[in-house]
């Protein structure tokens, strides 16, 4: 559902706009987020970029982001890479259009799976998966952080959501599901920044691989569903799949779309958040020390922490908040006007017109975040949060279509980070410089740590 771009006559754009092709100088299909950050940094809170005949309006300022959070005036819009993902997730929660009836139906069926009491029920399985990570890291040596965080989070959503183990920590190589998922995310991202002619000339093989990847993802998910239908509902309490199958509210194709959506949305972003947190910890020994003092005080000698002991790790949680400020692993979302309106008292938007909130810029807006590049978890101390304007920190999106899995991600990540910090000395390679890889989501590339039992 392509909507026309808003009136950009009053909106700045990069200096070197080239006739016909637009603002493509200095742009790679591999790093659209970081390129746009670079180009937008000096252009102010709103700017546009043009790719051929398509112009996109970006929001990099905190106050316009807060305004776009007004649910009465604005709503989610499916743009660029997210719209591309419809091929994979169909009318699943993440990629459903606002007006599709299956969004409300699935949202209502799944909400009970994300309450506080649901998190309490998931806790033991999350502890088990962390135990598998620890089993691997106890051997010591050099570990590939992003790969192991992906193992951890995929395993967690697979088991907790669907009773389906991927055996991630028993494999030498990533599960084929992860490889197919990475391949299809990469393709979806590149496709949304590709010249149509280039796609025609060079794209056939890539397109075929994409189709094969998407078909494989669907195959795995059908297997997950078949296994559950054969075994009947899970014994202890209904998981996501039980809720969907028992509700009768969702058709077979939609259930498949939801499972695929949750397997992808439920792990890539959390894995990146943990990896960035570990990256910043590896360079901030004072933060590590403070976190360890908290973990020791709250967890004591407990072999495995209880649910409440995780929720009490307030400082560890702030480390994650701060990592998600600097590198929000879902780096943007689009908002469309519900009716004709004027953004920032200056930029007219007709109903349906949209802009893309670019979170890594929004979260570095110096009018809200002093010394924005500095890693400082205390920005999320309660008094600092109270002193800040609302709706300027949005790693989990906004409004009705905000992330349903926020508590799930934060519980899982706080538990994992607490466990790792308590158990290991983490030594980075002093030569490593942060490289952020983009596959619709963000994560550190090539980041390794040497781990040793404390
Ligand atoms: C640190 C981890 C996570 C981050 C940063 C994150 C971020 C986001 C963001 C920004 C959105 C809104 C996108 C938009 O407006 O277009 C979103 C939606 C969503 N997320 Fe997450 N997410 C995380 C973890 C999870 C987890 C663990 C799950 C599932 C267990 C999950 C499931 C979803 C779903 C299903 C939606 C669509 C919700 C709807 O439209 O009804 N996410 N997430």
From TrEMBL:
Q: Which InterPro entries does the record associate with it?
A: Cyt_P450, Cyt_P450_CS, Cyt_P450_E_grp-I, Cyt_P450_sf, Cytochrome_P450_Monoox
Per the record's keyword annotation, is Metal-binding included, yes or no? yes
Tell me any Pfam family this protein matches.
p450
Among Gene3D superfamilies, the record links this protein to: Cytochrome P450
Q: Does the keyword Flavoprotein apply?
A: no
Q: Which UniProt keywords apply?
A: Heme, Iron, Metal-binding, Monooxygenase, Oxidoreductase
Record family assignment:
Belongs to the cytochrome P450 family.
| PANTHER family cross-referenced by the UniProt entry | BIFUNCTIONAL ALBAFLAVENONE MONOOXYGENASE_TERPENE SYNTHASE, CYTOCHROME P450 FAMILY 4
> Could you tell me what this protein is called?
Cytochrome P450
């Amino acid at each position: 559902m392509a909507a026309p771009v808003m009136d950009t006559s009053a909106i700045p754009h990069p200096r070197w706009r080239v006739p016909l092709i637009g603002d493509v100088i200095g742009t790679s299909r591999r790093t659209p987020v970081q390129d746009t950050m670079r180009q937008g940094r000096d252009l102010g809170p709103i700017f546009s970029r043009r790719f051929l005949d398509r112009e996109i309006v970006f929001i990099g300022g905190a106050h316009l982001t807060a305004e776009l959070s007004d649910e009465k005036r604005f709503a989610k819009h499916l743009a660029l890479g997210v719209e591309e993902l419809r091929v994979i997730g169909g009318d699943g929660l993440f990629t459903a259009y606002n007006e599709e009836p299956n969004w409300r139906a699935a949202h209502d069926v799944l909400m009970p799976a994300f309450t506080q009491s649901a998190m309490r029920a998931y806790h033991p399985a999350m502890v088990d998966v962390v135990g598998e990570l620890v089993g691997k890291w106890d051997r010591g040596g050099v570990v590939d952080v992003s790969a192991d965080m992906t193992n951890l989070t995929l395993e967690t959503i697979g088991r907790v959501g669907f009773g389906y183990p991927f055996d991630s920590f028993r494999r030498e190589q990533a599960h084929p599901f992860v490889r197919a998922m990475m391949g299809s995310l990469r393709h979806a991202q590149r496709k949304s920044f590709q010249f149509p002619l280039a796609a025609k000339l060079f794209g056939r093989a890539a397109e075929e691989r994409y189709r094969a990847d998407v078909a494989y993802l669907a195959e795995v998910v059908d297997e997950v569903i078949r296994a559950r239908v054969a075994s009947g509902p899970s014994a202890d309490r209904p998981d996501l799949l039980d809720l969907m199958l028992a509700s009768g509210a969702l058709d077979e194709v939609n259930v498949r779309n939801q499972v695929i959506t949750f397997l992808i949305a439920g792990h890539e972003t959390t894995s990146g958040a943990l990896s960035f947190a570990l990256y910043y910890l590896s360079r901030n020994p004072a933060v590590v020390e403070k976190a360890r003092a908290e973990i020791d005080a709250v967890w004591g000698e407990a072999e495995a922490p209880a649910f409440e002991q995780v929720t009490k790790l307030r400082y560890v949680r702030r480390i994650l908040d701060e990592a998600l400020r600097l590198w929000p692993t879902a780096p943007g979302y689009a908002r469309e006007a519900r009716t004709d309106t004027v953004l920032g008292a200056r930029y007219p938007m007709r109903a349906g017109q949209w802009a893309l909130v670019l979170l890594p810029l929004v979260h570095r807006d110096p009018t809200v975040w002093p010394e924005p590049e500095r890693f400082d978890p205390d920005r999320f101390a309660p008094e600092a949060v109270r002193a800040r304007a609302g709706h300027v920190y949005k790693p989990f999106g906004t409004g009705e279509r905000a992330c349903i899995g926020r508590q799930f991600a934060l519980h899982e990540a706080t538990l994992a980070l607490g466990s790792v910090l308590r158990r290991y000395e983490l030594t980075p390679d002093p030569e490593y410089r942060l490289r952020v890889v983009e596959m619709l989501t963000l994560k550190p590339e090539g980041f390794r740590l040497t781990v040793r039992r404390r």
